Prior knowledge:
This protein is mainly alpha-helical. Helices cover 78% and strands 2% of the residues.
Amino acid sequence: xxxxxxxxxxxxxxxxxxxxxxxxxxxxxxxxxxxxxxxxxxxxxxxxxxxxxxxxxxxxxxxxxxxxxxxxxxxxxxxxxxxxxxxxxxxxxxxxxxxxxxxxxxxxxxxxxxxxxxxxxxxxxxxxxxxxxxxxxxxxxxxxxxxxxxxxxxxxxxxxxxxxxxxxxxxxxxxxxxxxxxxxxxxxxxxxxxxxxxxxxxxxxxxxxxxxxxxxxxxxxxxxxxxxxxxxxxxxxxxxxxxxxxxxxxxxxxxxxxxxxxxxxxxxxxxxxxxxxxxxxxx
Length: 283
């Protein structure tokens, strides 16, 4: 077989390209955990897309179809839930296998899209399409949500806490709570107050447990149940609306109770430490 100059040049080019790939620094090579993190970002972007094309645009054009809008809203929320699943498993995979040097940065950027921008945009659109809502006020509440997520992620990157806890409500949990508050269909003012409260919890110093082991399994199961509730609501299954309302209420209830338990435990720990200090002083 005769090798032409063109074949030789192409072979040399492929060899050089392969050498360049192998010479890439480890910091630019993606791991399996990074791929899951990118899946998180994609879900966040698609949530914004479905909220825009399925809810906002039909409302602005006057072609709003209740069933279609409901389907699009449920799809957007389901994508945010799926993003939280990717966020849950990328951490587990990174601990079991490995993560690239870009892992932490990719995770923060993806979380900002899926759990900052997507739920905040959902609030903005709700403020534009709901009958009793006010667009400018809801936009201001959405800005607080985005800022809370940005501050929380920045603080997470530069502080060190004891193992097994987060400081402030985790952004996936906060995003799902914000969306649940909207889906509860409460009057406008209580809804805005609750959204602002969730934003405050995300930047607070309240400690939340990290989803590991049994808690990770419970978190995953709750996400699947939430998706099923959204599906039942979208398909107009008998009792689907009530099921969705119950799930949203449970999400909001958990968001309110966890800080109470954490604060109570912290106060009890401080009291116990004071008692020990007094006992040691008397000795």
